[in-house]
């Protein structure tokens, strides 16, 4: 898919106030610092579109970006970040879960995980919660540039195998990406384009 426009639309913490156009929407979720905002910038080829930081906890609201004037990307705050106060953390969790439960336009959630790490309890818990609520999602492995090329598949397969050893009967769709070297960009945009086509065909 060719990106012809990527525009920031709005930030808010209230799902009811998110854009109400009936366009397909994709949300990026995962632990703080996993690279959600960086991935959005890489996909859109726009460095400062989504705010990034080396310090976890940068993104704090639901951020909507309108792409090619016919679909939305959503940058969400990270979960599982211990340095925000307990009260703030609760608020994030409440509107994150509310977002996934109430957002009718959402066609796929992308759960980002660092390719170097084993499945973390908070990620497993969130994926299980998505499964239970029948919310479609795919896994995106991030920061693949941090591994030697030969190790990349091995780490991803190891992660997926651990899901299969747990509660998952089938491995979710997955993508291997790096915001530093653009790995996975074409695959991910192609996946989105296919879903968009289905979405508009059924309108
Ligand atoms: N090497 C490498 N670093 C990355 C990659 N993606 C993100 N980073 C770095 O990881 C840090 C966090 O990136 P963000 O994109 O802000 O992460 P986030 O998930 O949006 O974080 P929060 O908004 O705090 O939840 C930054 O220092 C990025 O430069 C990647 O693919 N490769
Ligand atoms: Mg962010």
UniProtKB/TrEMBL annotation:
Residues 22-198 form the EngB-type G domain. GO terms for molecular function: GTP binding; metal ion binding. Keywords: Cell cycle, Cell division, GTP-binding, Magnesium, Metal-binding, Nucleotide-binding, Septation. The keyword Nucleus does not apply. Its cofactor is Mg(2+). Coiled coil: none annotated. It holds the Pfam family MMR_HSR1. PROSITE patterns: G_ENGB (PS51706). GO terms for biological process: division septum assembly. Necessary for normal cell division and for the maintenance of normal septation. PANTHER family: ENGB-TYPE G DOMAIN-CONTAINING PROTEIN, MSS1/TRME-RELATED GTP-BINDING PROTEIN. Belongs to the TRAFAC class TrmE-Era-EngA-EngB-Septin-like GTPase superfamily. EngB GTPase family. This is Probable GTP-binding protein EngB. It comes from Flagellimonas zhangzhouensis. The lineage of its organism: Bacteria, Pseudomonadati, Bacteroidota, Flavobacteriia, Flavobacteriales.
